[in-house]
Each structure stands twice: as structure tokens, then as C-alpha cells.
Amino acid sequence: MTALFVVVLQFTEGGPATLGEWAVEDTARRTHRRWVGLYGGQAVAIQLVEETVRARRVLREWTPQDEFVAERASRA
Fold this sequence. Notes:
By secondary structure, the chain is α+β, with helices and mostly antiparallel strands. It is built from one helix and five strands. The protein has a five-stranded antiparallel β-sheet with strand order 2-1-3-4-5, covered by helices on one side. The protein starts with a strand and ends in a 7-residue tail after the last strand.
């Protein structure tokens, strides 16, 4: 199953979003870290999301109050 990694930046809750999409997870993670550094003091939310045909899962989410990091499912 092929995943798409999306980084979403929102300055206002429920407002418009800027996003980028990558097939390579490492590229999306670097972009997420860079956007937190650039916009973290202003943004309401910056998310790193893994999307597949079957599901959408938030891997990391930064808000001015806290950062959420999802645990990776073990791949046995």
C-alpha cells in the first residue's frame, strides 16, 4: 500500500490551509520541522499526516499549546 505524506499549515482554526504532499516520509518530516521553526509562533496547527487509500493518520501535530506525536505501529 502506497502512502502519501502531507504537511498542513493553518493560521486560523477552521480557516484556509497551506499544504505540501510528498511520497517520501523523510522529506515531509523535514518540511514539518522547518515549518514549525518558521511559523510555529503564529500558526494554530501544523500537522504531518500519512494518507493511504484506507486511512488518514496524523503522525505529528504542533500547536502553540503542545506537540502531539503519534506512536508508529510496529511492522511485523
